[in-house]
Amino acid sequence: NSKPSRFIITMSTVEKSYETEDKLIGYTAKISTASFSKLQQELQDRTLASTGDDGGMIGAPEVLEMGKAMINLTRATKVLDIGTFTGGSALAWSMELPANGQVISMDISHEHLNKVGLPVIQSAPELRAKIDFRLGSAVDILQSLIASGAAGSFSFAFIDADKGNYSRYYEQCLELLAPGGVIMIDNALWHGSVVDPKEPSAVAIDAANRRAAADSRVYNTLLNIGDGVNLIVKKH
């Protein structure tokens, strides 16, 4: 028997695949991103090269590929994308949606989108046509969707914006999702700091994770993939 009688964990690793040389993370990411397209790679490369210290805000490819699988699983036609940045996540979701599908992507700034993302995304007009980029507070945009009668009409939501509002985004997205819909909360481990949260972002992310874990309306699984993903399914 080659298995050790017990495992002793001396350290934990929480990193996006493009930020680490960890061989196991590299292996799992390579296996998980076989369908990562040339267009997605181009946008990731341009983002990392052109946005300085902000570059790490783009979603890890392994996380984006998992999101695409969730969109396929739920047969989504309407998707919420909270936190646009250069449009990497919005592009990923548009690739998995049918021709009549729509991604509503929201952010308080389109600076990096306009400079870096749009030139790449616009090279695929059939994908660009599926994305509605909205400038403004995601809290306000989500609330306006609820007020317009859109509750229960979305099948997938990706939360990757300001961490202080994570719990509020979670509640709004849950209202907008149909039963069986999926929420993915990115950065859910925040480089491991949620284990002993002290700074405001870690505290807010930990609160959102615990809110989902205690919520009888959902199933949730907190995964160590990228910088952590809380995968949440709204119960029927």
Could you explain the architecture of this structure?
The chain is α/β, with parallel strands linked by helices and about 240 residues long. The chain has 9 helices and 7 strands. The protein has a 7-stranded mixed beta sheet with strand order 3-2-1-4-5-7-6, with helices on both faces. Helix 1 runs parallel beside helix 3 and helix 2 runs antiparallel to helix 5. The longest helix is centred in the first third of the chain and has 14 residues. It starts with about 20 loop residues before the first helix and ends with a strand. The model has no long low-confidence stretch (mean pLDDT about 95). It holds the Pfam family Methyltransf_3. InterPro entries: Cation-dep_OMT, SAM-dependent_MTases_sf, SAM_O-MeTrfase. Belongs to the class I-like SAM-binding methyltransferase superfamily. Cation-dependent O-methyltransferase family.
Annotation keywords:
236 residues, alpha/beta, seven-stranded mixed β-sheet, 7 strands, 41% helix, SAM_O-MeTrfase, O-methyltransferase activity, S-adenosyl-L-methionine, S-adenosylmethionine-dependent methyltransferase activity, SAM-dependent_MTases_sf
What does this entry show, briefly?
The protein is 41% helix and 19% strand.
Shape: globular
Order of helices and strands: HHHEHEHHEHEHEHEE
The overall average pLDDT, rounded, is 94
Rg result: 17 Å
Measured by DSSP, the beta-strand proportion falls in 15-25%
Low-pLDDT stretches:
none
Question: By helix and strand content, what is the structural category?
Answer: alpha/beta
Largest sheet, strands/sense/barrel: 7 strands, mixed
Total helices: the number is 9
Cross-sheet strand order for the largest sheet: 3-2-1-4-5-7-6
Secondary structure: number of strands: 7
